[in-house]
Amino acid sequence: MAGKTSIIFLHGASSSGKSTLARMVQDRIERPFWHISIDHLRDSGVLPLARVKAGDFKWREMRAPFFAGYHASLAAYAAAGNNLIVEHILDTPGWQGDLAELFRPFDVLFVALHCPVEELNRRELARGDRPVGSAEQDALTIHEGRAYDLELQTGDGVEENAERVMAAWRGARVGSRFFEVSEGK
Question: Which residues of this UniProt protein bind ATP (predicted)?
Answer without folding.
Answer: 12-19
